[in-house]
Specification:
single chain; about 325 residues; alpha+beta; Jelly Rolls; Arc Repressor Mutant, subunit A; 2 domains; seven-stranded antiparallel beta sheet; 12 helices; about 20% strand; globular; DNA-binding transcription factor activity
């Protein structure tokens, strides 16, 4: 999708710019600093379960209010990469800024303010919160954090975003789906290497053990031998102690594993160009009884796996 305010009247720019961004990311309001002179362009592409966009515009302030997400079923994170100057972000009690060379995480399930005073160019990734949660755990600690994109995995991630945008017109739909998965894995890997995303409650020994066990599970979801005993042995703790840790947090080990695997199945089903059958996807992520998989999937997502696959392919054709 390509959009420009070039043909918009001065009185309509604020409204139309806000409407365009709301359709691209999620509902929000916008206040252009100088609406009569404001100019903005936006290009956006679908990368399977991810959305990628490039925008360039003059100074603007965005508001995400509670009314904007009151009825939203699924939440998303926005990953913003600024190029020409700092962007400012305020959410909950955090007030931060991010400049070129870094990237900012914005939670879509909480109110926030985002602004830049001068013309800026931004790359933005829209990522399902559930996809990040299935790889990193709780995402509440990610909001308003900025990450270094000049070294290590962060630089690799930023380079991959750049390469994707530069080559996007030459990549077919199947390639775009794969690019989205690649960017998602790199994003999570780059954030995981930062100590700040450790659970804020991990100051106790028990919480640290639980976090280690949960991360082991998230890293080994495709292992057909993943079970409670393997988790306990790999984390160097007894099975009874592991069960107690999960029970204290209102989880069962089996339920936690199933929940994370269902999220991975849902991701795969939403990739329109994935040629795997529903049964093959379920089997890949540890569901060997198809009837039980469909039962758990419907309970979690409110529809059948086939419904999700059909809808994703329909959306790919219609651009929905």
């Amino acid at each position: 999708m390509e959009f420009s305010t070039a043909n918009c009247s001065a009185t309509d720019k604020n409204r139309i710019w806000a409407q365009t961004l709301s359709e691209t990311y999620f509902p929000l309001s916008a206040e252009c600093h100088n609406v009569s002179e404001f100019e903005g362009t936006l290009s956006s592409w679908s990368l399977g379960i991810l959305g990628l966009s490039q925008m360039e515009c003059d100074g603007v302030l965005y508001h995400r209010k509670r009314s904007h997400f009151a009825n939203e079923k699924d939440s998303s994170l926005l990953i913003t990469i600024p190029h020409k100057g700092d962007v400012h972000f305020k959410q909950a009690s955090r007030d931060t800024r991010c400049g070129p060379g870094g990237f900012l995480v914005e939670r879509g399930d909480m109110p926030y303010e985002f602004w830049h005073g001068k013309r800026n160019k931004l790359w933005v990734l829209k990522v399902p919160t559930a996809s990040v949660r299935s790889r990193l755990g709780a995402t509440d600690r990610l909001g308003s954090l900025t990450f270094d994109g000049t070294t290590g995995v962060g630089a690799y991630f930023m380079g991959a975003v750049r390469n994707t945008i530069e080559c996007i017109d030459e990549i077919n739909s199947a390639g775009r789906d794969m690019a989205g998965q690649h960017l998602l894995e790199l994003l999570c890997l780059s954030m995981r290497s930062d100590d700040r995303i450790l659970d804020s409650h991990s100051s106790t020994i028990r919480a640290a053990h639980l976090q280690r066990a949960e991360q082991f599970i998230r890293d080994n979801l495709a292992n057909p031998n993943l079970n409670s005993q393997l988790v306990a042995e790999s984390c160097g703790i007894s099975l009874r102690y592991l069960q107690q840790l999960f029970a204290e947090n209102d989880h069962s080990i089996v339920g936690y594993i199933r929940d994370k695997r269902l999220t991975r199945c849902d991701e795969a089903l939403k990739i329109a160009n994935d040629t795997s059958t529903v049964a093959q996807i379920a089997h890949k992520w540890g569901f060997y009884d198809h009837a039980q998989f469909c039962k758990h999937y419907r309970k979690r997502f409110g529809c059948t796996p086939t419904d999700t696959r059909r809808q994703s392919r329909s959306d790919a054709i219609t651009g929905g």
